[in-house]
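Propose amino acids for all 486 sites.
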């Protein structure tokens, strides 16, 4: 593969460009009018405007993307994550013009894109599933009878969706019909498909995902797990690898199950198999993401592997670079997604102008981002500014390293999730490893704790400044007294 078009933007585009440069592969960036001054545009070997700011007119514009692919002579397309990364039609159209889609086949994307079809497929490999329906439900009364039989609480989930959209928690029979109507309406507007299904709600769940890789020669491996239980609105904010609670035996069981999911759909490339882990340490298949994950850096940091390079190797028809017994976990890594959000105000987006933007640097600190000082955070896309990642020999060292990195981060002009990240790192539940996906609901009911922490920091800084001033004044007084004697 000699030339790759990156059908994405921001930090993931920069991430792919870095690997392309190291492999001496030409990179082609596409950008919207809102991203014309973004760093990734200038770092790529070539860059082309793909349309106006709205993603529907730019990064999701398949016709324009295909036109640029043809004109630039690319022999590969990397979709990153989001946008068209899990769009089977786009993967198909790229393949039809003789260009390699760096990802799984359109068939695998379609299969795993439907939660119901995915569940039916993995059943043949005895992968554990959450009790629930194996088909779409459209009649609310039928759904209520099924839910009554499963036992409450239950989750109503959109078959075609993700990211918490089209999902409703139902605690009692009398609220089922209303909740189902809401779930279907949201699923229809978000995905164009109002098919829903029902699952037993797993109490105190941990969100554990397994990174898998498969090549065109039948080889499948997993690169261990990531713990993704610190979430807001069903979306991850803090991720770490490995999980603090998995035994080696359970790690092997979940890894084998994840590889079986990949085998079940004749998978190729990078994928992530997501599981729920209950309070009894029983795990259940949730879904498969048929792309590179946002949180892939923590896996790279504990394995020493470049997952984008692996993707390109597989797309080139090469075998996986390592076998399962050659992969090892080294130390611990944590990632904080830095969002332009106000955690004290229900994590609402808080975009603005990056007046000061000085990310921390140092040993065992990695920061993947798509911005520079003086830029505006655009309103058209996800409010994630970057991903702050650290590595330590142990989980405890990694936690302290993250706190240090957060404290060294200089940013102004926007409100971010940095303080929330520090709050998580210092919380006893997180430090002990005794937490689940309800962390925010359980421990973050009063966001004023962030303001108190900020005041404590400001007071400490003020006290330190006063102390320095006093020392300087003493030095000046001493100097003046000495000069007077002379």
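Proposal:
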């Amino acid at each position: 593969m000699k030339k790759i078009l990156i059908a994405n933007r921001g930090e993931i585009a920069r991430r792919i460009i870095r690997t392309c440069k190291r492999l001496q592969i030409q990179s082609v960036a596409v950008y919207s009018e809102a991203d014309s001054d973004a760093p990734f545009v200038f770092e790529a070997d070539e860059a082309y405007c793909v349309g106006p700011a709205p993603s529907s007119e730019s990064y999701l514009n398949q016709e324009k993307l295909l036109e640029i692919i043809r004109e630039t002579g690319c022999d590969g397309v990397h979709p990153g994550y989001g946008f068209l990364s899990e769009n089977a039609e786009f993967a198909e159209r790229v393949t039809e013009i003789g260009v390699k889609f760096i990802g799984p086949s359109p068939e695998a994307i379609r299969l795993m894109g439907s939660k119901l079809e995915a569940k039916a497929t993995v059943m043949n490999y005895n992968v554990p599933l959450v009790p629930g329906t194996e088909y779409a439900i459209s009649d609310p009364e039928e759904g209520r009878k099924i839910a009554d039989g499963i036992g409450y609480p239950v989750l109503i989930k959109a078959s075609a969706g993700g990211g918490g959209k089209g999902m409703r928690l139902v605690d009692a029979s009398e609220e089922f019909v209303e909740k189902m109507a809401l779930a279907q309406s949201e699923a229809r507007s978000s995905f164009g498909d109002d098919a829903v299904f029902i699952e037993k709600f797993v109490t105190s769940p941990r969100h554990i995902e397994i990174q898998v890789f498969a090549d065109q020669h039948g080889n499948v491996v997993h690169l261990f797990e990531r713990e993704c239980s610190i979430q807001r609105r069903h979306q991850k904010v803090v991720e770490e690898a490995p999980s603090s609670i998995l035994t080696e035996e359970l790690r092997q069981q979940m890894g084998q199950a994840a590889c079986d999911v990949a085998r079940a759909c004749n998978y190729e490339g990078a994928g992530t198999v997501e599981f729920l882990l209950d309070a009894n340490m029983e795990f259940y298949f949730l879904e498969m993401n048929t792309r590179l994950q946002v949180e892939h850096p923590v896996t790279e940091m504990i394995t020493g592997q470049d997952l984008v390079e692996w993707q390109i190797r597989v797309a080139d028809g090469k075998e996986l670079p390592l076998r399962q017994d050659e992969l090892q976990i080294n130390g611990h890594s944590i990632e904080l997604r830095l969002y332009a959000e106000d955690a004290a105000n229900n994590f609402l987006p808080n975009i603005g102008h990056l007046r000061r933007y000085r990310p921390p640097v140092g040993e065992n600190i990695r920061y993947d981002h798509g911005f520079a000082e003086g830029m505006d955070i655009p309103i058209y896309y996800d409010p994630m500014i970057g991903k702050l990642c650290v590595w330590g020999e142990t989980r405890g060292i990694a936690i302290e390293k993250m706190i240090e990195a957060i404290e060294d981060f200089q940013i102004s002009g926007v409100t971010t999730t940095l303080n929330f990240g520090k709050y998580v790192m210092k919380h006893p539940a997180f430090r002990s490893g005794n937490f689940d996906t309800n962390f925010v609901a359980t421990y973050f009911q009063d966001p004023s704790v962030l303001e108190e922490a900020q005041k404590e920091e400001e007071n400490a800084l003020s006290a330190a400044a006063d102390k320095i001033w006093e020392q300087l004044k003493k030095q000046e007084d001493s100097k003046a007294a000495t000069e007077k004697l002379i």
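The chain has a mean pLDDT of 93. The radius of gyration is 24 Å.
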